[in-house]
Amino acid sequence: MNALLSIALVLVATPAEPATTFQAGKFTPLFQTLQKQVQGDRHTFTRQGRPIATNPSWVRDHIHEMKAYKFWEPDLTSFVDTLLNLQHPDGFFYEIIGDASHDHQTFVSPKFVRIEPENDLAFIRLEMEADIEYLMVEAAYTIWQATGDADALKKRLPRLERALEYDFSDPTRWDSKHGALKRTFSIDTWDFTYGISDHNRRIDPGLPMGIMHGDNSGLYQACRQLATLLRAAGETEKAPAWDSRAEQLRQRINDLCFNGKYYTHQILLQPVDTGVDEKDILSLSNPYDISRGLPTHEMAVSIIDEYQARRTKNTATHFAEWYSIDPPYPKFGPYTAGKYINGGICGFVAGELAKAAFNHGREAYAVDILNRVADMVEKDGALFFLYDVQGKDMGGGPRGWAAAAVISALIEGLAGITDNSALYHDTTFAPRFAAAGIDQATVCARYAPSGEYAALEFNHDPATKTITLRIAGPKRAQLRILLPPGAHAASIASPSGLDSKIESIEASHYLTTNPVPIPSNSPLDVLVQYK
């Protein structure tokens, strides 16, 4: 029996049994190793006699890793819902869970700490962080996709709305002059401020402040996602206002922060002499900006090409171009140039950059990134969070964050499986295996909480210039099939009556269809002939 059909039939019959699978040449063992890495970040706390599953114990990392563990972890909700229920009256969320003696409670003002001695727990918000509220919207959106639970969604929405209103109004978060989210002057999304001790994570009067593009792309995405969630919950009258806020923010940030090639690291709200011009710094949120939809396609391609250009420029000194920031500061906090987040090379940037490249006509570059990651993981046995410029492990954070970013690039980028709504009922299949020279692949992306899935089998025969797909799981699917290099025309030989056209993005050509229904009791088989 065909491999995908076997998977599909088992899934239909017993949706709790099978697991997400990824079989595609050299990326098969890579996926397996990365999955174990993410699983290794899982921890459990107990509050009021109930378990709280974290992956890991800072909600930022937990949400970034959710890009992967949604495919095997049944509990996506306990940590996020705990923080939602503990929302501060001002509107902000805590971000860290730990024991009651957690040292980070001394880094912030008492307002940003909640101690529960009876549970031996502390909940802490690092005051200067600007990303938690918009990331919590991303978490709620992912949970809705994976569970389809509309009743739980309705309970979360008021807290999410209040959180984004806090971002748009609190004077420590919102710069009214520029109409943008602000933070103390940090390295991209990191949690310590220039010129003061890294044990001070407060927003004190007189500290340098700046507008960081990644915070605003996150807020932009959160507004869009909140609008979608409101519509899903039947609160359609509220949604247009959030869409409008998103579009207005996008225009302001693109005008303010994009410097013609990429997003300037920080738009400082007062002069700070660091020895580096902020416009020269390419920082780690640029690929995230692309995935969140902040730049236009042309801007996204410019960012991706800048990474390639800097790879060539720095090839004698840097083993890879997945910079935290480039160039680094002579010193930022306790870290000299090239140390930690002040110039280290990030495993998670590799994944996010590859996914961005897949989606914007730079598929060969995306595959090149994944090939290099696969070679590193084969050599080292893991994908590290941060590397020094020579390629050695610097530690400094959860490896699962890096692993999850690459898993997302494999499933959503290389296999091209994207959930357009919830529960994979409306799915885009954009297989890009041709860019990697892979002729056979089988992928099943399954949401663990609900058992809903999208499965794809890809076969390419260069001799007959045919591509066959077998698809199962969704109620309807749109196809966007990357043609092999050199191919410029294609048509669907079967099933008959399935309309298609060629769409080009940069130099790449895709055979595309409108959404088509998928039979509930059997896969859809598609035969493509190209030339």
Structure report:
- With 531 residues, this protein is an alpha+beta fold.
- It contains 13 helices and 28 strands.
- Strands 1-20-21-22-28-24 form a six-stranded antiparallel β-sheet. Strands 18, 19, 23, 25, 26 and 27 form a six-stranded mixed β-sheet that branches.
- A hairpin with a 2-residue loop joins strand 25 (501-505) and strand 26 (508-512).
- The longest helix has 20 residues, at 150-169.
- Residues 1-17 have low confidence and may be disordered.
Descriptive terms for the model:
531 residues; alpha+beta; Glycosyltransferase; Maltose phosphorylase, domain 3; 2 domains; 6-stranded antiparallel β-sheet; 13 helices; 21% strand; disordered N terminus
What is the β-strand count?
28
State the name of the first-level CATH class of the largest domain. Answer: Mainly Alpha
Average predicted confidence as pLDDT: 96
CATH architecture of the largest domain: Alpha/alpha barrel
Termini separation comes to 30 Å
Q: Which sheet architecture does the biggest sheet show?
A: 6 strands, antiparallel
Estimated share of beta-strand residues: 15-25%
Shape: globular
Total domain count = 2
Enumerate how many helices there are, as a single number.
13
Biggest β-sheet: strands ordered side by side in the sheet: 1-20-21-22-28-24
The low-confidence runs, each spanning 5 or more residues with pLDDT under 50, are 1-17
Overall helicity: 25-40%
Briefly note the CATH topology name of the largest domain. Glycosyltransferase
Q: What Rg is obtained from the alpha carbons, in whole angstroms?
A: 23 Å
Class based on secondary structure composition and strand pairing: alpha+beta
